[in-house]
Amino acid sequence: MVLDQRTLSLLSEPVRLALGTKTAAATSALLAAVMQDATRCRAQLHKLSAYVARRQAQARHAAASEPLQNVLRKLPKLPSYAYELATRLEDGNIEVQEVVNLIQRDPALASFVLKTVNSAYYNLPEKITSVYHAVVFLGYSAVSQLVLTQALGSLVPREPAFDALYDHSLLISVLAHDIARLTKASNPLTASTIGLLHAVGELVLLLLQKKHHGAAELLTLVDEASVGASLLQAWQLPERIYRVIEEQHTPAFAPPVSLSHAFKEDAAILYLAHLCHDRLLQQAETPDTFLDEYLAVLNLPDFEAFWHTALLPSLRQQLKRLPERIRQLLQATPAP
Question: Domains in the chain: how many in total?
């Protein structure tokens, strides 16, 4: 029942006072119940975060076991050109000609870059005939993606499961690059590299399951993020890259303060890239319980506003430089 101001004015003073007292008491009780529920929810979230942290610690322990480390040590090393490029791009001070020289140092890599940029993968209207023009056209981020793709090609076979995982990583890389560039929270090239390599542990575990069928069930218990971080550390990639990848699942279940490393901006960028990935593919796989806290790390007030007014327009402006599959996804996404 709702009493308007006119009806209340017809009531006697004692009745109005009684109604006011009861309303205040009901409101206080409701607020107390809401506060109690909020406290209970926070307690449950704290327990969930603690449980996830324990499971991640157990998984990291399994990933650090000597048998698995022996297997990782037997995997092919990252080619020197890929290591050097990733390190120089993370530093942020590199000229176009330096990138070109690094690529041309390996004829197979130079051939791969030119072949890929002129293939249906990019579907360009005109042919690019020099590595220099490929670097200028694509930009450092896309070139880095191609170089690392060629390097990882020595690790994994071309099969649907591996290709699907690479497509996922490439999209995360593109999104992470632009999130970092738009928010100015981190080096966009570092964010792009983290995005491209974040699933390397999963690639390795898929490869091991394929080679060691008897251990397939046991390998599913190993944390792929820890495996990836161990491998990238063994490859001597910058600490920022492998530390963020090691704790990449934490933002889905715990606030930024739970991260054990100092690279919270990069962790927030990778997490937000996964949420944007879900939005593009029209799926909801990434929990957003602590989204507001990670947005705050990047000084973003609202996810929807950033998605519609900043990130999506930015991606659409560079459609011609993106792989055809990503172009199709963006073109199929309704404009705000």
Answer: 1
Q: What is the residue-wise DSSP string for 19-76?
A: HHHHHHHHHHHHHHHHHHHHHHHHHHHHHHHHHHHHHHHHHHHHHTSHHHHHHHHTSP
Residue 298 lies in a domain: yes
Tokens coding 119: 């293939």
**144 found inside a domain:** yes
pTM, two decimals, is: 0.77
Q: HSE, CB side, 13 Å, CA atoms: give it for residue 187.
A: 18
150: nearest Cα among 193, 111, 190, 185: 111
End-to-end CA distance of the chain: 40
Q: DSSP character for 106? A: S
Higher pLDDT, 309 or 326: 309
User: Dmax of the chain from CA atoms?
Assistant: 94
Mean pLDDT of 274-298: 91
Q: What tokens does 201 get?
A: 């542990």
- Which residues are CB-neighbours of 30 under 8 A, at least 6 positions away? none
CA 65/CA 59 separation, integer angstroms: 10
Asked, for residue 42, whether it belongs to a domain, the answer is no
Please give the structure tokens belonging to residue 163.
Answer: 């290709």
Task: Give the domain range for residue 244.
Answer: 65-332
- What is the C-alpha separation between 26 and 19, in angstroms, rounded? 10
| Confidence band for 216, pLDDT divided at 50, 70 and 90 | low
> CB of 273 within 8 A of CB of 195?
yes
Q: To which H or E segment does residue 17 belong?
A: helix 13-63
CA-CA distances (angstroms) from residue 194 to 148, 229, 231, 237? Answer: 11, 11, 13, 11
Report the alpha-carbon angle 324-241-235, nearest 5.
100
CATH number at residue 277: 1.10.3210.10
